[in-house]
Each structure stands twice: as C-alpha cells, then as structure tokens.
Specification:
The chain is mainly α and 76 residues long. The chain has 2 helices and no strands.
Length: 76
C-alpha cells in the first residue's frame, strides 16, 4: 500500500476542482435532458471529492503539527 503525500493530495484536489469547473462550464452546451444531468452530477461529485481532498489535507496538517501555531500559549 503506497503512502499518499501532502503534495499528491493537494495537486489531486486542484485537478478535481478544475475538472469540476470544466464539467460545470460544459453543462451550458446542453439545454436539458440526460447529458445535462450527467454533467451536473459529475460536477457535484468532482467538487465533493475535491473538498474531501482539501479537508483531509488540512486535518492531517493539524494533527502532525506542521500547521503554524495560532495560540501564543502553544509556544511553550
């Protein structure tokens, strides 16, 4: 099982975000029907996955201590 790095998660999140934006813009080419619904569903799925990737990365940074300290009492 391979370890997913921080860079992989962030770049994967950005790729999913851009793909979601692309499918959102592509829905404008269809006035309705199956294909418009297909692209809208793909947009939602890709955006949710991108949010998961970004959220997971933020959560892992907070747990590992790599995030900058935001409270003065944590310095000691």
């Amino acid at each position: 099982m391979s370890k997913v790095t921080s860079t992989t998660r962030l770049s994967g999140g950005f790729v999913l975000l851009l793909l979601g934006l692309g499918t959102y813009l592509a829905t404008g080419f269809f006035e309705g029907g199956f294909f418009r619904g297909l692209f809208q569903g793909a947009t939602i799925a890709l955006m949710v996955l991108a949010a998961y990737f970004f959220g997971r990365e933020i959560q892992d940074r907070r747990r590992s201590g790599d995030a900058p300290m935001w409270r003065p009492s944590d310095r000691d």
